[in-house]
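re: that complex we talked abt at group meeting.

here r the seqs, copy pasted straight from the sheet so there may be weird spacing, ignore it
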Amino acid sequence: QQPVQSPQAVILREGEDAVINCSSSKALYSVHWYRQKHGEAPVFLMILLKGGEQKGHDKISASFNEKKQQSSLYLTASQLSYSGTYFCGTFDRGSTLGRLYFGRGTQLTVWP
Amino acid sequence: NAGVTQTPKFRVLKTGQSMTLLCAQDMNHEYMYWYRQDPGMGLRLIHYSVGEGTTAKGEVPDGYNVSRLKKQNFLLGLESAAPSQTSVYFCASRGSGGPVEQFFGPGTRLTVL
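got the structure back, here u go
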C-alpha cells in the first residue's frame, strides 16, 4: 500500500522547474506532501483532497487526479531552499484509524 | 507551544539492552505515531495510537512495544535492542476530524552496537 514516487532523485539549477509524482494502487481519499531537510524532521507542505483541486504553497503547487490515483508536486523557478527530500503520504479510502502511507521519497538538489 | 518533543535526541545502546523513547505533544491531539526512517526506505510506521489507552501495530512493529497512558505522551520501548534497530525514530501527532496535517518531532538517532 506504500505509494510509489518518481523520480528517486532530481538535480536542478536555481530557477529551473521540477515535477515529482506519486501514485498508488489504492483508491485515495487524500494526498499529503512533506519536505524534509537533511537532519531535520519532515515538514508539512499541503494536503490535496479528492476532487482534483490544485493547492499551492509559495511557488510549489500540486494536483491530485483521483481517477488515476496519482498526485504531482510542481516546483516552479526552484530556489536553493527547495533542496531536500520530498515525501508523499496517501490516505486511502479503506484506511481505518487515520494512518498515512508514505512513499520512499524524492531527493531534490538545487545548485546555484 | 512546544509542539511535538522527543527524548532523547541521541542514544547509543549495546545489543540486548533496553530503552524507552518518549514523545510528548501539547496540542491535545488524539492521534500519535512512531516511525522509523532508514536510508532509501522512507518513513515506516511502527505503532500508532488513536487515543489515550489505545495502540495499534503499523508496518514494522516487531521488536517494539508502545504505551499511551496519557493523551499527551506516547512511549516507544525496545526490550532487547538489535543492530537492525539502528535508525532515526520520529514521533508525529495529528488532530481528529479527517485527513489533516501530521506534526513531527525532531527525531531520535539510535545506534545499536
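couple things i noticed - The longest strand of chain A covers residues 28-36. The interface with chain B takes residues 2, 29-30, 32, 40-44, 47, 49, 87, 89, 91, 97-100, 102-105 of chain A (CB under 8 Å).
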